[in-house]
């Protein structure tokens, strides 16, 4: 069997399971921002305090995410105009690839800002305060807010549209009618996740 074919299937799968599921969990946790610093910090720290946290992050999140990102970048550089696609499908095709690159840079910045940075500054554990200070900083707050909004839009779009491409890649939606249904599901997913994430950020805006 063609190795590239297998890699593309694995790439498609990792975008949904486990990376996509972790994205949903991560966005859900952000809703606790509205509960205040004590509750939010407790919810976030309860995960990282688990003895399995590091293993879960490495095996279930980081390794699949690195594979998905690296192979996705290779696919992006190989991307070509698709003559068989109509305008909207072509737009989604390129937005999926461009958003993937953008989200990769956002994840790197987010991991530094939310995890590595606080560790270096010895402020780990005060997640709510760290985010709030970053958003309210008079010099860099606007940049931080812009990066987070763009990162959220890119991540939710990439995942939601990935559901649509996953269904086609894995033969779940092969007929035009079934593909239309999956596209509707993708749009709804994008709207629900985006609204939820922006609502969460409104707590510290």
List the helices and strands and how they pair.
Blueprint: H1 3-16, H2 19-30, H3 37-48, H4 53-78, H5 87-121, H6 127-136, H7 141-169, H8 176-201
Explain how this protein is built.
The protein has 8 helices and no strands. The chain is 80% helix and 0% strand. The chain has 205 residues and is mainly α. Helix 1 crosses helix 7, helix 4 runs antiparallel to helix 5 and helix 6 packs across helix 7. It is globular and about 50 Å long. The chain has a single domain, classed as 3 helical TM bundles of succinate and fumarate reductases (Up-down Bundle).
Quick structural gist:
This protein is an all-alpha fold and 205 residues long.
Keywords:
single chain, 205 residues, mainly alpha, 3 helical TM bundles of succinate and fumarate reductases
Query: What is the fold-level CATH name, i.e. the topology?
Result: 3 helical TM bundles of succinate and fumarate reductases
Identify the CATH class: Mainly Alpha
The CATH superfamily turns out to be Fumarate reductase/succinate dehydrogenase, transmembrane subunit
Which residues sit in consecutive blocks of at least 5 with pLDDT less than 50?
A: none
- Overall spatial form: globular
Q: Percent helix among the residues? A: over 70%
CATH architecture type = Up-down Bundle
**What would you report as the Rg, rounded to the nearest angstrom?**
18 Å
- Estimate the strand proportion: under 5%
Number of helices: 8
Average pLDDT for all residues: 91
Helix-strand sequence: HHHHHHHH
Number of strands: 0
* Largest sheet geometry: none
């Amino acid at each position: 069997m063609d190795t590239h074919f297998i890699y593309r299937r694995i790439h498609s799968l990792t975008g949904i399971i486990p990376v996509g599921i972790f994205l949903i969990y991560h966005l859900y946790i952000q809703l606790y921002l509205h509960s205040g610093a004590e509750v939010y910090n407790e919810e976030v720290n309860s995960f990282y305090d688990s003895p399995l946290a590091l293993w879960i992050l490495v095996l279930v999140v980081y390794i699949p995410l690195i594979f998905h990102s690296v192979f996705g970048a290779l696919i992006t550089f190989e991307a070509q105009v698709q003559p068989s696609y109509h305008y909207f499908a072509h737009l989604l095709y390129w937005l999926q690839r461009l958003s993937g690159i953008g989200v990769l840079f956002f994840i790197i910045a987010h991991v530094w800002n939310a995890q590595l940075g606080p560790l270096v500054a010895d402020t780990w554990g005060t997640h709510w305060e760290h985010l709030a200070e970053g958003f309210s900083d008079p010099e860099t707050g606007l940049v931080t807010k812009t990066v987070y909004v763009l990162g959220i839009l890119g991540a939710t779009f990439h995942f939601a549209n990935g559901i649509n491409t996953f269904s086609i890649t894995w033969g779940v939606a092969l007929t035009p009618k079934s593909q239309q249904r999956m596209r509707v599901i993708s749009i709804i997913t994008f709207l629900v996740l985006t609204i939820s994430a922006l609502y969460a950020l409104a707590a510290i805006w």
